[in-house]
What we know:
The complex is a heterodimer of chains A (504) and B (194). Helix content of chain A is 50%, strand content 5%. Chain A is mainly alpha-helical and 504 residues long. Chain A folds into three domains: 11-45; 50-78 and 117-270, Flavocytochrome C3, Chain A, domain 2; 83-108 and 272-287 and 343-462, Butyryl-CoA Dehydrogenase, subunit A, domain 3. In chain A, strands 1-10 form a two-stranded antiparallel sheet. Chain A has a two-stranded antiparallel sheet with strand order 2-3. In chain A, strands 4-5 form a two-stranded antiparallel ribbon. Chain A is elongated, with a radius of gyration of 30 Å. Chain B has one domain: Di-heme elbow motif domain (Multiheme cytochrome fold, Orthogonal Bundle), CATH 1.10.3820. Chain B is extended, with a radius of gyration of 23 Å. Chain A binds chain B through residues 1, 3-5, 22, 25-26, 29-30, 32-33, 35-37, 39-44, 46-47, 67, 70, 195-197, 220, 301-302, 307, 311-312, 314, 317-320, 338-339, and chain B through 2-3, 5-10, 13, 20, 23-24, 27-28, 30-31, 34-35, 51-52, 55-56, 59-60, 63-65, 67-68, 100-103, 162, 164, 166, 168-174, 176-181.
Amino acid sequence: MKPITELIKKRPIIGWMLFLATIVVVFLLGLLASSIVERRAETLFVYTPKVEHSQFEPRSSVWGENFPREYESWLSTSDTSFTSKYNGSSTIDMLAVDPRLVVLWAGYAFSKDYKQSRGHAYAINDIRKILRTGSPMNGVKSPQPNTCWTCKGPDVPRLMNEMGIANFYKGTWDALGSQVVNPIGCADCHDAKTMDLHISRPALIEAFNRMGKDITKATHQEMRSLVCAQCHVEYYFNKKKIEGVQYLTFPWDKGSSADSIEKYYDEIGFSDWTHGLSKAPMLKAQHPDYEISLTGTHFSRGVSCADCHMPYMSEGGQKFTDHHIQSPLNNIANSCQVCHREETARLVKDVYDRQDKIIENRDKLEEILVHAHVEAKAAWDLGATDEQMTLILTDIRHAQWRWDFSAASHGASFHSPVETGRIIASGIVIGQNARLKLSRLLASLGKTNEIPYPDISTKAKAQTFIGLDMEKLNSDKAEFIKNVIPEWLDEAMKREKGYKTVEL
Amino acid sequence: MKIIRYFIPPDAWKVPVIILLGVFTGLGVFVFDLSKASSYLSDKPETCVNCHIMAPQYATWNHNSHREYATCIDCHVPHNNVANKYYFKAKDGLRHSTMFALRLEPQVIFIKQAGREVVHDNCIRCHQYLLTDEKMKLQSEMFMQIRNGRSCVDCHREVPHSRVRSLSSVPYARVPLPGSPVPKWLNKLMDKPD
């Protein structure tokens, strides 16, 4: 064969053909490249918003313009029609259901008023109405700090951004009454630009940092639980971190089990209040839902909170995450039955069976605790000394902590029945130990017959027993709701009119 | 050797030819990088959403019970031998990328016969003990025929993607789509956030 140069020299047409062929190849290759570029660029426009707003836009209705389906399902959190065996989506007066709670919380605001919570939509409404926040008016301040607002809605990250974190926690609850007006919504969990899940509350990030973990490394599946763990966790108000600030802190430094959190509190000498009857330095468990879930079978199989509480739903030809966050018992088909093939009734029975069995022993522990508080009071009345009482009061503290850890966690008996059973069992042992020590002490003080169990058959009787003036509390609250709340709402409305959004 | 010599240009042409070949190779590398070609050697489900039209398939799988146990490759590529696995993967992958680049995808994607068979075999690969129950072998002949003549997904139609599967069926699903092809350092030079 001759070199190509000679071929071209002889027949120039070959040269021209080569030239044209090269043009065609480069042209086609260029087309292919640009097609790939375009198709890749399409992914950047998968989400095309109708309204542009900032990360700190607290009104979910504004975010909802871009995501009508998600927004509409979120609105359903205002539904109160579902009732399960023990809970549901309506208000239940837990003190009336179980008046023992009044005695267990004597001397603490929870003995005034404690209700089963409704959906996220009521977060603001219900914190205003609950007696625990008091009736701040006419110069009287709320007994609670601003920290109590932290989980109530997307106004909180907005305010933290404006005021700084510690400044937000500072002051009493009434100070931000006109500021926090939007209930838990979009901005609490979502990034405004990408709509990815994000953490908006500093306490969780700080807790991760102290444990040496980096929350920014969390996978999407982990985030589907972690956004819930911003609030559905055990926490306390650290008064020692910054002077005059009740700083929201998660007590996970030694681990997140009931035992390790108890140890953490013991070591820092923290107590929420001193019990009204027994004078024990008490701990109040908040709602360690995430901590208890971590020990459950579903969690260890990779199931996130959202998998059951916000399952996929379809509407028309579309599938999306149901933002009606609720008990999966009200939506067995989309939650449980995605994996479990049993009949609905059978699955519900499984849940109720666990709840029945856990509550059986939980009630026993409650009775032990009522006895212990009443007997401790009798011992004080008979002239017991601090020294004689210290160990007994520590036992009462630990036993009630374990009771509360299992009782206050929503769904604990389903999320992790074995761990919850274990916590209650250890509480019963510690509680009985307290009573053994008490009976020895009472005998040495000359009291050998039984201290009678108080008549606390109704909420009213129990509240009278611990000496609460409910009439005054209720009438003050009614006046507060009538006079102060409308002022807060007026102020909020004026402020929100000034918020900027851009229609696109 | 003769053939190679045939392609060697005369000295005077060498520089332009080197440049031209460089252009070709560069363009090739660009296309390789842009299409994330190397990711296709992995078994990660994220690779399948390199094309955003697979987002519904990814999102529905990610909300299904199979999520914890099986990824795309486990069901959609044969696992009887390594050669067959990569042959099928290459064949399907090349068809998909061609359709994608030429914008030939239908609004609702249905699986092809070859793919159906692979999926069926893979159902059995994991769930074989549901089928080889000795008791079942004693059933009537007709029963065996009905069993053998149908594929698993004829009845288990919701597994795992459900029947809602048009390209627009999962708007805003949180799916790990590839980001902008412009690298971070370039954005930084241009002072633009990612």
